[in-house]
Amino acid sequence: MARKPRGQGRNSQLKITLRSAKAVQICKKVFSFLQANVKWLLVTIGGLTAATATFVANFQDLSSQATGYLRTHAYLQTRQHPFPTLLDKNAVDSWTTGRLELAVYQIDGYLGHLKKGPKWMQTCLMDKTIFPNNHATQYNDLVELPETSIDRQNKEFLWSRINDIELNRLEDGQLLRINDPFEKLLNRSSLQLLHRYKDSELAKLDKPQLYLLRNSIYARHGYPFSTEKLEKYSNRRGWSTLSAAYKPSVMAPVELCNAYYLDELHPARELGALGRGLLVRAPGSIISSRFLKAALCACLAEPKVSVECRHKPNANEADEFRDNVDLIIDLVLGDENSIAWTFIDPHDVARADLELFAIHEDSFLSAALDFNAALQGTFMSHQTPFKVSDTSATGGFWGARIELLPQTFQTLSSNPIFLREISNNICSAVQRSLETVGPFIPRMAKVVPQVVQAQEGALAIFEKPIIFDDLRIRLTQQYILNHYGLSLLSIELVPKIVVVHMSENNTLASSYEELRPAVMSHGKKASADVGESELNRSVHYLIDRDGNIYSIMNDFYIAKQETGMDMHAVGISNVGSGAMPPTDAQIIADARLVRFLRLKYPTIRWLVGAPESQAFAGSALWEERDPEYRIGARAPNADFMTALRDRLADLKLKSTP
User: How far is residue 476 from each of residues 507, 536, 559, 624, measured CA to CA in Å?
Assistant: First the structure.
C-alpha cells in the first residue's frame, strides 16, 4: 500500500478550513443583507399581494357589475312603459280622479319609484283584471329609472286634471249631501282612491264596517258570495239580481284597487252582528207594539250596531231566513208573558255548511239563554211575570216568539220608561246573540232555482255550493304554483274553454258529495296546512239526469278539473257513468248552459270532452309543467259530444288548438 507524502493531509485540512471560513463570511453577508432589507422585502411582497388582491377584487367587481348590468338590461327588456307618449287629453277627459291618480302610479311603478310603496298599490298594478294588457310589464321593482320629459308632462297634466275636478267639485257635489260616512265612502269607491281618506272618513268606521265596505264594492255588481252574511246583505240591498251576469271585468279599475287597499287596511273577516238583518213582526193593531218595534229598530240602526230591521209581516219565516235575515222575532198577543224559540233544523242547512253548523250548534242555545235572561230580568224588575218556555221547535229558521198579555201591552203604552227598557234590552240581546252565533249561521238549502236570461230564453239554475273556503282557495293557489309555476294573487279566470265531463256516479247526491270537500279524501282529516293537504277535484256545474242544472262554485274561479287547462276552463259534469250514459235531457241542458256561458263570456272559443284535452298539450292553452301528471278526468261518449256539437254548430266552437 503506497504511503501519502508527508504534509499532504495537513494541506487538505487547511483548504477545507479556508473554504468553510469563506462560506461563513458569505452567509454572514447574506444574513446581513437580509437583515438590512427584510422590511423592504416584506413591504414589497405585501404590496404585490395587495395589488394582486385589489386586481382580483376589481375584476370580480367589474364582473359582478357586468352581470348586474346584463341582468338589469334583460329585465328592462321585459318592462313596457304604460304611457310612452303624451296622453291624449280627449281620451283622459272622461277619467275620474281615481283613474287619473292610478295613471300617475302606473308611471311611477314603471320608473321603479314604488318599490317601497304600499303593497296594495303593487298588487293593483299587477292585477290582470285591472290592467289586462300590461299587468305583467308595467311594474318595475328592480331599478329606478330617471323621469323623461314625457313622464313629467304626463304627470303634470294628470295632477292638473285632478285639481280641476276637485276645485270644481265635479265628483264631490253629490257626495257631500250624504251624511253616512259608510255610504259616502261606498259612493266614492267608484270615483276616487280611498287611501286619501284614511285619516278622515275611514277613521270613523269600525273594523266590521271596513269589512262590509270592502265587500260592498263587489256586492253592488252582483258578486255571488259564499258567505251567508254577505249573501243576505247583498240580497237586502237588491244587488244579488246581478249575480248571474257577474264577472270580474264588470268592476272598474278604481273599485278593484280600493278593495285591495281596504283588504290591506283590515284583512280580517268580520262575521258578527254589524251588517246583519232581523225580521220583526208585531201586531199593527196595538199601538204599544208598534212603539216597541220602532224603538227596537231605531236602536239596532245605530251605526255601531247596524242591524237592519225587515218589515215583512206576511213573509214566510224560512224564506226570509234563507235569503235576507239572520234572526226572526215575533211579538204577539198571548195568554201569558213568555218566550219560545225555534232552532235551525240541520236537514234544511246547505250541505256545504252543515259540518261547521253541527260543531257550533250549541252556540245557538247559549245565545237564546242569554236572550231569555235579559228579557226576563227586565220584566222581573217591574214585578211583571215572564215565563221561558221549556220546549222549543225546529225548522228552517232561527227565531223567538215573544207573547205578551193584553195588560202588558197596556202597561207599555202608559209607561214609556218600561217600554224603553224592554226595547233596549232586546236590542242588546239581539246584538250579543248575532255576535255569538254570527260566524256559524249557515246557508240554507235552496229549492227554488235562479232564473237567468240565456239565448234561448230563461234558464233555471239551482245553487248547490260545494265547500269553497279559505283553505280551498289557498290549496288552489298552491296547486297552480306547483303545476303551472305561477304565484296567483287571486284564483279568478277568464274562461276560454268549456270542458264536458261525466261524474262516474249515478246519482246527483254521490256526484256532488265527491266534489264537496276542499281536500281529497284519503282517510285523513283535512289540514289547515296547505303543504299537508291535496286539493280536491271540482267543476263549476253539475247536470242531473233529468236535465236540472246545478251551480256548485263560481264560474270565474279556477277549478282543479282538467290537466293543463284549469286556468282557462269552465267545467260541466253530467251525472252518470259508462253503465248509465248521458240522457237526452242532459244533452239539451248542456247545450243551453254552454250558450249561456258563451253569452256571458265571449272569450270562450273551444268546447271539448275531457279526454280530447290531450290534443292541447304543447299549445298556448296548456300550462302543466309535469309531462307525467294527469288528473284522470272523465268525459261523455263520442255520440254525446257529437250531438252536443250539432246543437251548438252556430257558435263555431273549436275542439282542437
Answer: 27, 9, 8, 14
Three-state DSSP string of 362-422: HHHHHHHHHHHHHHHHHHHHCCCCCEECCCCEEECCCEEEEEECHHHHHHHHHCHHHHHHH
The pLDDT assigned to 523 comes to 45
Which cell goes with 57?
377584487
Interval 369-395: pLDDT, tens: 999 999 999 999 999 999 999 999 999
Domain 172-265: state its class: mainly alpha
**How is residue 537 written as a grid cell?**
277535484
**CATH for 450-651?**
3.40.80.10
What was the pLDDT predicted at 63? Answer: 67
* Nearest-angstrom CA–CA distance, 86 and 156: 11
Domain 277-438 has CATH 1.10.8: no
Mapped onto helix, strand or coil, the DSSP state of residue 191 is coil
Q: Residue 145 contacts by C-beta under 8 Å, 6 or more apart in sequence?
A: 76, 110, 111, 112
Buried b (16+ CB within 10 A) or exposed e, 424-449: ebbbbbbbbbbbbbbbbbbbbbeeeb
Burial of 91 (0-12, 13-18, 19+ CB in 10 A): exposed
Q: Cα separation of 583 and 448, whole Å?
A: 23
**CB 192 within 8 Å of CB 253:** no
| Model pLDDT, residue 389 | 94
Report whether 280 contacts 296 (CB < 8 A): yes
Domain boundaries, the chain: 21-77, 89-167, 172-265, 277-438, 450-651
- What pTM does this model have? 0.85
**Amino acid, res. 58:** N
Number of Cβ within a 10 Å radius of residue 311 = 11
Q: How far is CA 49 from CA 52, 56, 550, in A?
A: 5, 10, 79
Query: Residue 405, Cβ neighbours under 10 Å: how many?
Result: 16
Q: Are 558 and 491 within 8 A, CB to CB? A: yes
Q: How far apart are the first and last CA of the chain?
A: 113
Instruction: Give CA torsion, residues 319, 320, 325, 326, to 10 deg.
Output: -50
Asked if residue 535 lies in contact with residue 604, where contact means CB atoms within 8 angstroms, the answer is no
Whole-angstrom distance, CA of residue 71 vs CA of residue 142: 10
300 or 244: whose pLDDT is higher?
300
Q: How many helices (H) and strands (E) in the chain?
A: 20, 14
Average pLDDT, whole number, for the chain? Answer: 89
* Calpha distance 446→449 (Å, rounded): 7
